[in-house]
Amino acid sequence: MLSARSLFQEILDHDESFRLFCSIAAGGESQGGWENGRIAALVPPGEHALAPKIARHGADEDKHGRIFHALLRRRGLTPVAVPPETDYTMLLERRGIGLAHDRLRRDEPLGERDLIVYLAHSRVTEQRASEQMELLLRYFASHPEVGRAVRMISDDEDNHLAYTHEELLRFAAAGHGRLIQRTLRAYALAEIAVHRDVSLAVMAHMGRILGWSRAKSGLLAAGIHAVYAYERLAGWRRMADLRTPERRDALGGPATPAHEFA
Hints:
about 0% strand; 8 helices
């Protein structure tokens, strides 16, 4: 029977599919670390209290990248090049989501609008990350090889999601509500299309590595398209709403270390 659990287990059990999965994940996390680090460095003086939270976000993302690399080393594997069609962060940038890298490379302070763009981007993508880690947590929290990594990353992603809600609500209270809602809606609709395309590309690569039948690959592709259809119709709204999070000041302290994955 084809299920999310059996699919992830199959990827986990095969060295080459596990290698590709961890390489893709590590690349995205490391890119997020760089982006957040640059944004923290460019925060304008009026928002100086936000800078350490953004830096903490970046430190968490860097840590996640190191964790995925450590999982590869434990199995005696090395990373592989990430296929461009599976590069979620790059494809989002091409869609105009978030702050462009050429803007982040300039040593010019960001403005309030830039920070709202950054936070809206994070709000949408952290929703996806939190949900994906929740799924892995459900099935692999006690797994001897990846369980500790899944638990740590899942907790961090929930913190990131809570932080984006809290900060966007603060900007909304300061009079930016309409801009925030327009940006969230546009970014959510763009993200679900990118997520569909990346999911199809990743499953195509996994299918070749694992020797899936045409029927199995077709069933998985149909499932991805069905998820997209639902998200395009109504599911995107969960990425665009704002509510006071249960976790308050979620990024108010230092990042937790990852010594156990060294």
